[in-house]
Amino acid sequence: MKTVLITGCSSGYGLETARYFHAQGWNVVATMRTPDASVLPRSERLRVLPLDVTDSESIAAAVGAVGPIDVLVNNAGIGLFGAFEATPMATVRELFETNTLGIMAMTQALLPQFRQRRSGVVVNVTSTVVLAPLPLVAVYTASKTAIEGFSAALAHELAAFGVAVKLVQPGYGPTTRFASNGQQRMQGLIPEAYKPFADEVFAQLTRPGPTTTEADVAEAVWRAANDTSGRLRFPAGADAVALSQGK
Q: Mean pLDDT over residues 29-47, rounded?
């Protein structure tokens, strides 16, 4: 029976992905900064562990508390809407610490066992902002684009050891907690001069059309984790698929 470790499982994509893998019969290690086992089913095949991907000691403790892992899903991330001009560099660094360096740190922590066993899969969750950049998410886009390049290069680096690297690219998910989770750090990031433009952007985002659900992402992560074709990128959601096809 295979085991998956998923970061950022308190809500949204991570929570749904943990539920999905568990339903498929896998052992699941669901991690989150503040553990809440009540959001997941009680099961001998499911463990909930504390993990802060920006803290090296937290990473070491989590990895040391589990046995062999077959698949690592780097899902933990934070969102940000705002004008770059008004975004403090401390906030920029905060975003990169989680969205970029956190993924790198988690991957590095598990690579020794993957390499030694000559098997394993790293699935990194990014976003379709890497396919169609949007205004007011410049910092978020940069943090995710860095992981796209990192993953593409790392896939070549690890192929010789039988370790696969995959990318899952969710589209726009209005039902996720992307915005609500970042409300505090987004305060004041839309200056008065930007408000008319920001209103137009938000209006476009709320127009009816195809979007991405948590289930779309969970299914895409599952496909990526079990793929043997050598494919790197897996768009998640109808809008993501359309963007990946240039539509």
A: 94
What pTM was estimated for this model as a whole?
Answer: 0.94
Active site residue 140: yes
Highest mean pLDDT among 138-142, 171-175, 203-207: 138-142
Residue in 13, 140, 172, 194 annotated catalytic? 140
For tokens 């996720």, name the residue: 176
**Are β-strands 121-125 and 71-74 bridged in parallel, bridged antiparallel, or unpaired?**
parallel
Cα Rg of the chain (Å, integer): 18
Residue 214 tokens read as 């948590």
Strand partners, 51: none
CB 77 within 8 A of CB 58: no
Q: How confident is the model at residue 25 (pLDDT cuts 50, 70, 90)?
A: very high
Q: Where are the domains of the chain?
A: 3-244
CATH of 3-244, one of 3.40.50.720, 3.90.1300.10, 3.40.50.1980, 3.40.1190.10: 3.40.50.720
* DSSP one-letter string for 144-168: HHHHHHHHHHHHHHHHTTT-EEEEE
State yes or no: pLDDT of 180 exceeds 60: no
